[in-house]
Amino acid sequence: MNKEAYEIRYPLDAVPLRKFAELIGKTETAVKNMVEDGKLPLIPWKNPDNPAPRRGEQWVFLPEFNRAMHDAFANRPKEQRDAWLLWLGL
């Protein structure tokens, strides 16, 4: 199968947490929990002109997320990785 079939595609390389939750079908709370647990590649957005920023945003870097998901899938034992093919008779 084509590697690109498994990738989350969006016109930007990074998206805010709300959009990421929408893309993967999770709630914002679930995504925020993933952030707190250090499970997502984040890019912090802050105003560089503000010397003491109190607010900012965190965006998820999709190319790194896709790379890690591909690696996680590819590195599973073959019997787990290919188990779904049994349903197709392959």
From TrEMBL:
<dbReference type="InterPro" id="IPR038147">
    <property type="entry name" value="Cox_sf"/>
</dbReference>
<dbReference type="InterPro" id="IPR019679">
    <property type="entry name" value="Phage_P2_Cox"/>
</dbReference>
<dbReference type="Pfam" id="PF10743">
    <property type="entry name" value="Phage_Cox"/>
</dbReference>
<protein>
    <recommendedName>
        <fullName>Regulatory protein Cox</fullName>
    </recommendedName>
</protein>
